[in-house]
Design brief:
Layout (H helix, E strand, L loop, with lengths): L8 E7 L5 E8 L4 E6 L1 E8 L4 E8 L5 H23 L2 H17 L5
Antiparallel strand pairs: 1-2, 2-3, 4-5
Helix pairs in contact: 1-2
Length: 111
């Protein structure tokens, strides 16, 4: 069956002379995002043929460590929510949420 519509998400990475990311921008026309700047990104895709995930993890050299900790925490929480939607596994989702709370506490992210 052919797709009725396609949607494109574009990532652009500006590198310095050492090929270290200086600028990250992304666009998602269907979502109304056009060349928005970001300081970090995590992208995972599933390779069904090889039964493995492939990933790209990038952050700009000026990404503050305190913001990176918050970014990771929010990503972990989001992954927990996505896991629940994808699997309906309430028990493991609760375990993942417990870890998110532990991570938040240990990283002293509560304000």
């Amino acid at each position: 069956m052919a797709a009725l519509h396609t949607s494109e998400i574009t990532l652009k990475v500006g590198l310095d002379e050492n090929r270290v990311p200086e600028v990250l921008t992304w666009s998602a026309q269907d979502g109304g995002i056009d060349n928005e700047e970001a300081k970090a990104m995590l992208l995972s895709v599933w390779d069904s043929k090889n039964k493995e995930s492939l990933k790209i993890d990038l952050w700009t050299k000026d990404m503050p460590v305190d913001e990176m900790k918050i970014f990771f925490h929010q990503t972990l929480v989001s992954l927990s929510d996505t896991f629940m939607k994808a699997t309906q596994d309430e028990k493991m989702t609760a375990t993942m949420k417990d870890f998110c709370a532990y991570f938040e506490e240990k990283m002293e992210l509560k304000g």
